[in-house]
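Researcher: Next sequence.
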Amino acid sequence: MEVTLDILCHADFSGRIRKSKSTVGLSAFSAAIESARELNPEGTILMDAGDHFSVNLWGGLPMVRASNLLGTDVMTLGNHEFDRGKDYLEECIAACDFPVLCANIHYKDGDPIAGTLPYIILERCGVKIGVIGLGTEYTPFMVEKSAFLPFTVSSAIAAGKRYIPEMRENGAEIIVALTHCPFYIEEDGSITGEMWDVLRNIPPVDVCIGGHIPGDYANIIHDTCVLKAGFAGESLGRARLVFDTDTRQIVSKSCEVMLTDPNKEGRAEISAYARQVTEPFEAYFNEALAYAEEEWILRLATETKLGDFLADCLRFGGQTEIAYMNATSACGMIEPGVVTRETITQVSGYNDPIFVGEITGKQLYELIELVYEPERFGNNAALLISGFHAELDHTKPSPHKTIRLTLPDGTPIDLERSYSVCTSAYMASGGNDTSQVADQINYRNTDLRFHDAAFAYAKSLKVLAVEDWPRLKEIGTPENDNSPF
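Model: Next structure:
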């Protein structure tokens, strides 16, 4: 006899309960899940590949409740689960009605994170499915340093080599690697990156699920269904496995990505819950701040007016000469028309406190060279900058790409002079693997958060504009550009 098992997966929903112009919202996403589940109610498993709890306004517990309502069967931890520290994470995990997995991130004393397991063996239609949870080894560089202090990361490959045979010994007939590891789709259709490195070096698995960055993917590689889907709820991945219960073998595999229909509504219970969570914030989101006359679209690896505007917002809040922030804290676009608080929050997802300090010209040069080192650039992309210009030559090897740094009026940055600088709490703690410079700066917290600075700056402009443009002059293009947009 043959049974069909459907493994549904998504990653990086990132608290997007509320429907908007750029987000499908919880209700529509739940409708996509239910439509898939109805085709095979007894044989469907819903897996969450992480980045789910970290939310600016309504917080983590409402997101856990949303996951419970979706019928989540198992989840692995993403890097943003650690953003708000140990107590927040443990509280969220304790509220989950489903197992939370993490085989390679643990407390520094070696104990597993409270409430987590390295793997779980689920059963559907009489078939045992082993699921291992793996986090990206880059997590410490993607979380504000103090929030991650209680934790440490070990090798995902070593965890796979340890636990996959153990799952087999404990009766697992199908193996799923549920990871929050990124991979990148090359022009020829091949994949590269951390998840691919893990997959190539662990014992064989039947399904491997990635996360962490936008971009949908579904393909069978060396007899493994490889999937990535679900960023912001816009899609859902599905691996379909047909299992012969006589031979106890998988006889066929397929996988696909299904797009969420933003116009569909989920169950009444879920739609009501989404309204309950988000309606108290409607007035906040809808407050008009300014007007936009042109479309601005963010790009992670190159300068854009939207990126420059966000860096200007940061410098406005910090009241400093220079500002920088990671591009990966931003996304999306600002369209012509009224700019509301919602507009700003949709293009700047992380509402960090603003930190200020003093940076020397020598340290600023060192920072720029760090950012464009190929491996680091591949993981993080560019910086958003304000208050200075950079000329770079990407035909030269790292760390010799910076031709010159100047102030906007063309005055060279003085290597010996100190400049007032501001950045986010994340970058002040050495985020994006920039501790080599950040640790040299005596940063202090202004207690002003980025969104409040951005709202105030937009109001002061009335019509959004970037006067100091362009700021970046480049010869060639950066090596190892993995930017999904």
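Model: Residues 287-475 form a domain with the 5'-nucleotidase;  domain 2 fold (CATH 3.90.780.10). Residues 25-38 form the longest helix (14 residues).
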